[in-house]
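Module 6 notes. Inverse folding takes a fixed backbone as the condition and produces residue identities as the prediction. Think of it as a translation problem where the source language is geometry and the target language is the twenty amino acids. Below is one complete input and output pair. Work through it position by position during the lab.
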């Protein structure tokens, strides 16, 4: 074999193998996957999109590693160096597959947990736990491939676990409180809650450390999981999103109560059927409660689809009821206070007047 053939076999061919692997990987990543993604958009199953997204970028690494493996078989390497090269390539392939599997597992976790209505809904803490678990399995496989025994590492982790737990006591407390919140299903992402601290809003996410609550003012309230687990929480989405809305009303003592009840119910039915957020098939109620200082107090019971709808429903009901009372001649009393001044008149006050 001449010198040129040796150069081609030992150097040119390995370089071409690596280059070919890289080119094939980029072609598969940029052309094939993009074409498959466009086709997957026409299918009803969302899992194929997750699988294709998890392969983006990884295919280039895998094809390039395959080309490097072919190149290593033709390079004039010593046995020890050849073995080390193979182990490095195996490690790269395993790590790339681990990243892809972690992305895929997290994607499927998001997909199916988001479909649960009564089970575990999507939270970042669940997604992170799934991904960390996959990463740990990948690292263990890498260590096994490299011939590293994991028994001493597990022993060391067991011995140092107590010290780590003491050092990260607050963090672990929030972590386990987050799991407790998710498993108990009392607070879930998307629920509208009110805390005993008067903070209220929609639960945006439950992470490994804190829970994010988005208020109606478009602000984010960050609550540590441990504090949320120990707080008194009103969940307006459980057991049902619909809520009762009680609107207090006062009419004059001279009003005919039967007529007041009839007019109030007519306006309430109109609001229930014509205002967004009302329950059209709900029959409103009127309950007279007591005699006030300046009139008769009653309560009108309405019903809303969820807690945030109460503001518009109440606004429309008060506006329309006020106009209807004026039209019907029903008095809406205003508070009256009689003030009596006592005391002697100052000397000369009459003359000055």
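Target side of the pair, the amino acids:
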């Amino acid at each position: 074999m001449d010198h040129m053939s040796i150069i081609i076999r030992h150097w040119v061919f390995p370089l071409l193998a690596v280059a070919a692997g890289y080119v094939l990987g980029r072609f598969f990543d940029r052309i094939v996957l993009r074409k498959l993604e466009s086709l997957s958009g026409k299918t009803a199953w969302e899992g194929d999109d997750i699988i294709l997204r998890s392969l983006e970028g990884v295919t280039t690494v895998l094809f390039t590693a395959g080309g490097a493996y072919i190149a290593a078989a033709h390079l004039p390497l010593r046995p020890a160096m050849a073995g080390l090269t193979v182990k490095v390539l195996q490690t790269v392939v395993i790590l790339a597959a681990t990243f892809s599997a972690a992305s895929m597992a997290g994607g499927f976790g998001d997909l199916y947990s988001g479909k649960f209505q009564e089970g575990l809904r999507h939270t970042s803490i669940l997604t992170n736990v799934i991904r960390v678990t996959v990463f740990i399995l990948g690292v263990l496989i890498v260590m096994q491939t490299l011939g590293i025994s994991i028994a001493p590492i597990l022993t060391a982790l067991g011995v140092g676990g107590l010290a780590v737990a003491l050092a990260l006591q607050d963090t672990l407390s929030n972590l386990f409180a987050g799991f407790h919140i998710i498993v108990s299903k009392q607070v879930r992402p998307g629920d509208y809650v009110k805390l005993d601290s008067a903070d209220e809003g929609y639960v945006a996410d439950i992470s490994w450390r804190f829970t994010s609550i988005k208020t109606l003012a478009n602000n984010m309230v960050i609550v540590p999981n441990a504090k949320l687990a120990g707080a008194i929480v009103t969940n307006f989405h459980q057991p049902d999103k619909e809520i009762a809305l009680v609107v207090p009303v006062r009419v004059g003592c001279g009003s005919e109560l039967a007529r007041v009840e009839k007019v109030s119910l007519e306006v309430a039915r109109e609001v229930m059927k014509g205002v967004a957020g009302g329950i059209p098939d709900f029959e409103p109620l009127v309950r007279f409660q007591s005699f006030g200082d300046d009139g008769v107090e009653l309560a009108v019971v309405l019903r809303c689809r969820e807690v945030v709808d109460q503001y518009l429903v109440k606004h429309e009901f008060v506006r329309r009821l006020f106009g209807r009372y004026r039209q019907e001649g029903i008095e809406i009393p205003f508070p009256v206070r009689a003030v009596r001044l006592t005391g002697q008149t100052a000397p000369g006050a009459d003359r000055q007047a």
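Reference fact for the lab report: The two ends are 135 Å apart (CA to CA).
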